[in-house]
């Protein structure tokens, strides 16, 4: 449950939507060796909390680049979520880079160390210097629990530092979402139509102008069984306005001789 | 074939590696509705041309943001590749935004228009104002052929503007790769090992230091049949150095009681 989901709808409707940037850290994503798969999850999960992902970036394992990017993004967006680079090996430099961004030292965190010691209690020799590094957290940071593999993430200011492995990142997100103060979730409705983009473009442009401030309309090509169609996606934080725009789009498609199916 | 793949190996080895940024444009990626799938292709295809993707960014359909980001990235990297936003609808604003970034007007391009007219020759009424917009190209740009759906991409300075639909983007890339001047492709070797990251971290850190300037080593966790292992990925532009580092890693894994398999 997100922090403000207990507020009444009228209060939520009056709140501005919060924004987030997702910072994906790792040479393996930029090289194409590993397919990025955290952005989609974070976009959907954050939207449920009324936080809109407005920017995403993929950068290499480079301390200066990470620190500079964290500072740029945390100044520009309400929240920053980083993924990747918090494990035990030499290329896991996200934690040190975030400490540098905030100008604070890395300190051995007693609770994080205790969790690692409990995790490796069957063979303490496994808790070597490399693994103990995962208990070093920037001064002032709060741990984010990792129920999958123990080594925690952390939050510092408006920056949330998460693992890169999707199953761990998702478990961490469930343990931080109650800290987020969001606005209204964006609602969406989607129509599959049997007319290509170029045929409906002018009509949908008119509808977009009519609902300029309140509804965002996207049109995407759709290839199915050799036929060209399109998907219309309408988004708004207000259900009634969204419904009015969606009906206008349905009528426009029908007027052009096409048909639509809500999906 | 990339431009310099006809050069001799000794000339290639002396060339610096070129860098690229990938700029993914579209609200539908940031909302999580569509999964990003072009970065991996571009990373691999550019590496074949000796161009390293060093940065990627996902931004919304916003003209100011697109123009500012194009200007930031084209100054910082040898090449910029944009995907998305060059279709016929109101949310396709990449072309106009790139023109703004370069401070040049959009002009109706005779060749692009001729191609669209040929494409719609069976029913000229389909070539409405929205579709004709796809023949408006920034002044000074060179067309990039689109064998899938006719409407071209374009290159302007060091910026390559491509479609977002993967099959079209990939076809466009095949039509532009001969324009790229790259360096040596990055070679890679990968080892799957049956020891977890934390166990090999110190030994691999030593090898990374030994080969600091010439080899980049990544270590990633591997979960298989309930067992924790790791994948080592070693990268270099020099095959002999890469081989030496890979053998050092193999020996280190063996010395720690583990086994490796080259994949």
Name the assembly state.
homodimer
Number of domains of chain A: 2
- Strands of the biggest beta sheet of chain A: in what spatial order? 2-1-3-8-7-6
Number of strands of chain A: 12
Based on CA atoms alone, the radius of gyration of chain A comes out at 22 Å
Share of helix among residues of chain A?
A: 25-40%
| CATH-assigned fold name of the largest domain in chain A | Molybdenum Cofactor Biosythetic Enzyme, Chain A
Arithmetic mean pLDDT of chain A: 91
Described by the principal axes of the CA atoms, the overall outline of chain A is elongated
Greatest interface (CB-CB under 8 A), with counts per chain:
A-B, 59 and 59 residues
CATH structural class of the largest domain in chain A: Alpha Beta
Biggest sheet descriptor of chain A:
6 strands, mixed
Order of helices and strands of chain A: HEHHEHEHEHHEEEEHEHEEHE
In short:
The structure is a homodimer of 263-residue chains. With 263 residues, chain A is α/β, with parallel strands linked by helices. Chain A has helices at residues 9-13, 27-30, 39-48, 63-76, 94-102, 110-119, 129-132, 166-174, 197-210, 239-255; strands at residues 18-25, 51-59, 79-83, 106-108, 136-138, 142-144, 153-156, 159-162, 187-193, 216-224, 227-236, 260-262.
């Amino acid at each position: 449950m997100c922090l403000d989901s207990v507020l009444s709808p009228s209060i939520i409707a009056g709140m501005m939507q919060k924004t987030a940037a997702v910072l994906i850290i790792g040479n393996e994503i930029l090289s194409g060796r590993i397919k990025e798969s955290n952005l989609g999850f974070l976009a959907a999960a954050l939207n449920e909390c009324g936080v809109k992902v407005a920017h995403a970036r993929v950068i290499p394992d480079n301390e200066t680049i990470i620190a500079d990017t964290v500072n740029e993004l945390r100044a520009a967006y309400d929240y920053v979520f980083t993924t990747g680079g918090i494990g035990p090996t030499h290329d896991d430099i996200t934690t040190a880079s975030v400490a540098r961004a905030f100008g604070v030292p890395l300190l051995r965190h007693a609770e994080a160390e205790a969790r690692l010691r409990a995790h490796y209690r069957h063979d303490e020799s496994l808790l070597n210097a490399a693994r103990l590094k995962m208990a070093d957290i920037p001064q002032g940071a709060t741990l984010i629990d990792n129920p999958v593999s123990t080594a925690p993430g952390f939050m510092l200011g408006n920056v949330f530092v998460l693992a890169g492995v999707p199953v761990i990142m998702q478990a961490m997100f469930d343990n931080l979402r109650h800290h987020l103060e969001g606005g209204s979730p964006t609602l969406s409705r989607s129509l599959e139509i049997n007319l290509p983009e170029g045929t409906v473009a002018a009509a949908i442009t008119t509808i977009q102008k009519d609902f300029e401030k309140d509804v965002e309309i996207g049109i995407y090509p759709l290839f199915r069984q050799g036929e060209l169609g399109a998907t219309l996606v309408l988004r708004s934080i207000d259900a009634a306005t969204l419904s009015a725009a969606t009906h206008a789009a349905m009528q426009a498609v029908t007027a052009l001789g096409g048909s639509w199916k809500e999906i």
